[in-house]
UniProtKB/TrEMBL annotation:
Residues 2-118 form the Gfo/Idh/MocA-like oxidoreductase N-terminal domain. Residues 156-216 form the GFO/IDH/MocA-like oxidoreductase domain. Pfam families: GFO_IDH_MocA, GFO_IDH_MocA_C3. The lineage of its organism: Bacteria, Pseudomonadati, Bacteroidota, Flavobacteriia, Flavobacteriales. This is Gfo/Idh/MocA family oxidoreductase. PANTHER family: BILIVERDIN REDUCTASE A. GO terms for molecular function: nucleotide binding. It comes from Flavobacterium cerinum. It comes from the Bacteria.
């Protein structure tokens, strides 16, 4: 089992601690949190070993799980990587592109692995449909959340939209051609609601909307491609797949047939992929353990995390124009 330690024992950090403690692939050594009062409370309540410094924790483990505020991701990851430790970094990978690119360079230099916590890649509804998403030409996403002061120190693009950016980049195998976007600050000092239109070189267009001042929560993505429509509900973990094929010469009584202006007839049919229940956070952590043990590529590489961050900042730059 890999010895793992967690940096950061806030809301998400405590979730990581609990899951790593349950995992059969990790041996949870302990955690570090700069807020000593919080650290003492977590140690007393759950029995996890509290370390007094980041360096002491890093020295005691094989893998460092970084669940700290984004501004500290780079410094924490750099110290861990230079000590020869593998790093799991919660999204976004870092505060700047330059920091992210340096982390990639360091992992190669020190021959360690890194993964970014883009957890929606492990959403069971997305997993169930991902192999069906082939060359999508139009994508629409809505990620809406009720207001929560936690996370408002960064634009909604880095807080929420980056999940959909990463998911889209994982299925569209083409370079980004152009980006247009607008954002509005309603409550926070940074934009609370944003819309972006990403055009890819292969002709695909993605329209993304994110808000953290919505009256209800929604996390839906719709993928349109030749002869298929695929809907993924990341919140309720359900999916819908509608496909078309050439209509039979003699349709059945219950066949759904469409005929276009040219007289071509298509039959509509539905597929219901099996959505297997899972714990996405546990899965992302354990697949990282598999990548380390088997010397394979992590599901969400540091390069993936960097590209998602790059597109996010290009969207944010549009707000200033």
């Amino acid at each position: 089992m890999l010895k793992v330690g967690v940096l950061g024992a806030g809301h998400l950090g405590k979730i990581h601690l609990r899951l790593l403690n349950q995992s059969q692939k990790y041996n949870l050594v302990g955690f570090y949190d700069p807020n000593n009062e919080n650290a003492e409370k977590v140690a007393a309540e759950f029995g996890y070993q509290k370390f007094n410094t980041i360096s002491e924790l890093i020295a005691a483990v094989d893998v460092v799980d970084i669940v700290t505020p984004t501004l500290s991701h780079y410094d924490c990851a750099k110290e861990a990587i230079q000590a020869g430790k593998h790093v799991f970094i919660e999204k976004p990978i870092s505060n700047t592109i330059e920091e992210a690119e340096e982390l990639i360079t360091l992992t190669k230099k020190h021959n360690v692995k890194g993964q970014v916590g883009h957890v929606e890649r492990f959403n069971p509804a997305f997993i169930a449909t991902k192999n069906m998403i082939v060359n999508p030409m139009f994508i629409e996403t809505h990620r809406l959340a009720e207001f929560n002061p936690r996370g408002t120190d960064v634009p909604v693009v880095l807080d929420l939209m980056i999940h959909d950016i990463d998911a889209i980049l994982s299925v569209v195998k083409s370079k980004v051609k152009s980006i247009n976007a607008s954002g509005v600050s309603v409550i926070s000092d940074t934009p609370d609601i944003a819309n972006a239109r990403i055009e890819f070189e292969n002709g695909c267009v993605a329209n993304l909307t994110s808000s953290r001042i919505s009256l209800k929560n929604m996390r839906k993505s719709r993928f349109f491609q030749k002869d298929a429509y695929i809907s993924v509900d990341f919140l309720d973990k359900v999916c819908e797949v509608v496909k078309m094929k050439d209509a039979p010469e003699v349709p059945g009584d219950f066949d759904m047939i469409l005929q276009n202006a040219e007289g071509v007839k298509k039959q509509i049919y539905f597929e219901n992929p099996d959505v297997e229940s899972n714990n996405a956070i546990l899965d992302e952590l354990e697949t990282f353990a598999d990548a380390i043990n088997n010397n394979t590529t992590p599901v969400v590489t540091l390069e993936d995390g960097t590209e998602a961050l790059r597109i996010a900042y290009q969207i944010i730059d549009c707000f200033k124009k």
